[in-house]
Amino acid sequence: MRRVIELPYGSGTLSAEVPERNLVGVYLPQPVPACADPEGEIARALAAPLGTPPLRALVRRGETVVVLVDDHTRATPAARILPLVLEELRQGGVREEDVTLFITHGTHRLSTEAEVRAKVGEEIARRFRVEQHQCTDESQQVYVGLTSRGTPVWVNRTVVEADRRVGIGHIGPSPYAGYSGGYKLILPGAAALDTINVNHSLVPLGFRQPGRVDVPCRLDIDEAGRMVGLDFVVDVVLSQDEQVVRAFAGEPEAVFREGVALARTVYEVAVPPDLDIAVTAGYPYDLDLYQAVRAVEYADAIVRPGGSILLVAACPEGVGGDDFYRLMANPARRPDDFLRDVARRNGMVTFAVLGYALARIKAEKRLYMVTDGIPPAALESMGIVPVPSLQAGIDHLLGQYGPEARLSVFPSGSTTIPSHPRGSGKGPC
Fold it and tell me: What global pTM score does this model have?
């Protein structure tokens, strides 16, 4: 008997057949129901915030307010949240001309006009001032101080000099910080490249610890965020189809703590360990390889040494930049070669730490990929084996590992954190 599997790919899907004797399971984030009234849920959270008075009671007329939102690569439904947040500010006496909407790109490219309108909403984009963060523009950065881990914190002037800072984001899996949300809007979102580089040099200390929020990188993010300050945050937890499950509002650390507790029940999935093969989709972070590789990092947690990972990602924007490609296009590089790049700050440390993780994984496992967005020769230069189709990749790997091969499928691989079954003592903390 063979079972048909489907994985998201671009705007459609790819399908293949897998013998049932080899299929350990198909694993997705838990199918939690989305709330029937997202705006009502956001209004509820705003009316009863955690650890702080309502937003309208925190602000006053004449104050400048910056509202930080994540960018076009993230699923936060900011266009649904912003009208309610802006109404709270209006009720508190804040004038429209004193509000700046600030898109927190970190090291990502700037959003296009269409992407900005989609993110914040057409009417709001017309009415309000919108700024986008550029991490390389030192003229727009203010030094805030040093964290206890030695990270010098430079943050965008618009954010630092505002009287009030309000954040809008979502809490979901983050390979280097455990979960997104909270102070990530400050670091890396609104921080200088130098700050991001130093902070991300802590990422290797959290390698192969998916879902943990006590890793050094995340703790450093929170410390830097407290130095700058967020007066109020609205974070949502999303379902596997990116609909609002629940909203949390209020003091950033209280919001993050409550939101992560719920997010764990959505994104952390018990998966039997020691797989021979993981077939994982980069969805929903599959614009480019740089984003989609998080699916490989999560699959690595449950594939045995000597096993293989098959990544499926359309990557319409290719590898993720020439700098990232050049860094990766030498499959002979060892993990410590990438650590030297981290130590020497060669280029963006975000690229080097991802190169380090991939080098560690490739030292033990084979990586394969199905994509239309990256030429086969480019994949091969990065140590990734291109395969012409999902079915061809699965058939090849099953032939390689034999009739008893153990294979699992992850249709939302970038947002599925595999944990070992309860009782193994190996799950995420």
Answer: 0.92
